[in-house]
Every structure is written in C-alpha cells, then in structure tokens.
Design brief:
There is one protein chain. By secondary structure, this protein is an alpha/beta fold. It contains 11 helices and 10 strands. The two termini are 27 Å apart.
Length: 320
C-alpha cells in the first residue's frame, strides 16, 4: 500500500454535485480539502481527500465512502456541516472520479479488493480505528469491511445508508421465498431492484448510459456520462451474483447503525429486518427522505452522525 502526496489532476468531466443548477443544500461555499494524496493498492490508484481537523488534532476521525454512480463530492454538503468537529477522510472508490485502475477486469472490483482499498486509505492517514459512514455501494463495502478479521483494527463504528450487507440480503431473500406470506414483501423489493438484473446484461447497460446523458436524481443531474459511470457497472457484475449464490453468515464486529430512507426507490425498509440479530450493538433510524438523503438533507444527516459518534466517544466501543 503506497501513498504519494499532492493534488492529482481530475480525470473526469463530471461537473459534480456543486455544478450549476444543483446548489449545495444549506451552503453556498464548496468545502475544499486541505490535503489530497494518492494511495496505491492492488492495481488501483485512489484519490484521497482530507477536510476539517488536521492529523495532529484529537478530533474524532470520520471516513465517508460514496456509492454508485457518485464520487466523493456527493458528501460536500455534509462535509460543510461537520468540518469544524471532525477530521474527515473521503476518497473516490476505484471505479469513480479521480481514482483509476490498471485495467477493468471484474476481479479488480470484487468486495475483497474494495475492503483492501478502504483499509489502505485508513492506514495512509494513520487514523484507525475510524468511524465509517457509507452510502449505497459505500455502505455495502463498509459492511464487508466490518466482517473482516481485522475490522476492529480499522473501524470504530459503522453507519450504513441505502446499502445492505450482501450476506444478509441473500438470507433475507431465501427466507421470504420459503414463506408464501412474505412473497408480497419480496416482490416489492425485487421490483425496486429491477436495474440490478439489467446491469448483469453485457453491452446494453453501457449503451443506455451513453444514450441517456442526463439523469433526474439530484446528484448526477446535468453531468456528462463518462467512463467512470460505465466502470461502476463492474461493482454489480463482480459481486451481486456470487453473493446471491453463496456466502458466509452475516456478521459484524463493530457497533452499527442503519439509516432507512423511507422513500428510497431502490431498497425496501423491510430489508433491514433481522440485521440486529448479528450486529453486536445496533440502532435503526428512519428518515422521511429518498435514496440520496446524505446529499439532500445534510443537516439532518450531520445531526445523526454526531449523535452516533458521540455515543461511542463517550463510552468507548468495548467490543473486544
């Protein structure tokens, strides 16, 4: 895991969440990182950004991990709310933004590699264990990291938004398949997840991305479709079918909170049912919002992060 300091050129023509026509909620100033560096790991060069408190402070460390089809800039409104209280780390995952890979083979995008990336970013900042906030695929990665034998070395707690643990999701689906009374709930979730099957089809999703250069949700509206969008499909192709076919029991080695946006078009609130059985210290929080709640409601998101991190900062995680 090698690192090099210094700003890196932006290799994307994404305008980002702060592009014209997409104002930052509650904030006109775009937060700027005080440190930018590159972390090399397993065929990827990850663009890492630090905001807020410096490394020599005693502020809690918060790692923000974005999903698809976003990059780290989805968190700019949230960073603007929290930068005075935390040392904030974020990065473009290997499929997005300023980060790059040596090639686009599917094995480059498997969850094992994504977790190694997360640990490499934390190690590069000499910051572990950190509090991790994951959204969408960032949350999926964070759940997998929390299962890792080294989880407590790197993670102090996890807050998950709109990204399930794939081992839990597999078991959730299988349990409801065996119970006819649960078929309506299962059918609703499968309807919400229609795009996951589409993304497994060769060529067609890439073509649709290129033919649809503008999207309606608030994060990517007005951004030009680039190779980062296409490369992000590898997340689905490398991980969904293998994890839905087989895998270990879900587990989590750190305290975890799940925030459930009740109007999320992709994920049913019912998908969280049963998570508390395998998480050592668990909270479920519901919010009246859509999938991109961290971007559209940064003040509410910041308040919940403060409360969650404050709980563990006061008492200590005590999970060893």
């Amino acid at each position: 895991m090698n690192t090099s300091d210094g700003p890196q050129p932006h290799n994307s023509n994404l305008a980002g969440p702060h592009s014209p026509g997409v104002p930052l909620p509650h904030e006109t100033e775009v937060p700027r990182p005080h440190t930018i560096r590159t972390v090399a790991n397993a065929g990827a060069r990850l663009a890492v950004f630090e905001y807020g408190a410096r490394a020599d402070s005693d502020h809690p460390v918060l790692l923000l991990v974005h999903g698809f089809p976003d990059d780290h800039r989805i968190f700019e409104p949230l960073i603007a709310e929290l930068r005075d209280e935390y040392r904030i780390l974020t990065y473009d995952t290997r499929n997005a933004g300023q980060s790059t890979t040596d090639d686009d083979r599917l094995e480059r995008f498997r969850l094992q590699r994504l977790v190694e990336d997360m640990f490499a970013v934390i190690a590069s900042a000499d910051a572990g264990p950190v509090h991790v906030f994951g959204h969408d695929w960032g949350s999926i990665q964070a759940w997998h990291a929390a299962e890792h034998p080294w989880a407590t070395r790197y993670l102090a707690s996890l807050m998950s938004v709109s990204g399930p643990n794939l081992n839990h999701m597999r078991q959730w689906i299988r349990l409801r398949r065996r119970r006819p009374s649960a078929w309506p709930v299962l059918a609703r979730q499968m309807t919400r997840s229609w795009y996951v099957s589409l993304f497994q089809v060769p060529v067609l999703p890439e073509l649709l991305w290129r033919l649809t250069p503008r999207h309606s949700h608030p994060v990517v509206r007005g951004r030009t479709v680039t190779p980062e969008f296409i490369r992000g499909l590898a997340l689905y192709r490398a991980n969904i079918l293998p994890y839905m076919a087989r895998g270990p029991q879900p587990r989590c080695q750190v305290p975890a909170a799940v925030v459930v946006p009740l109007r999320d078009v992709a994920l049913s609130p019912a998908l969280v049912d049963g998570v508390g059985r395998w998480v050592p210290r668990f909270q479920r929080m519901e919010v009246d919002a859509e999938h991109w709640w961290p971007f559209t409601h940064p003040r509410d998101c910041a308040t919940r992060i403060r409360g969650w991190i404050g709980l563990w900062d006061r008492t200590g995680p005590d999970y060893e």
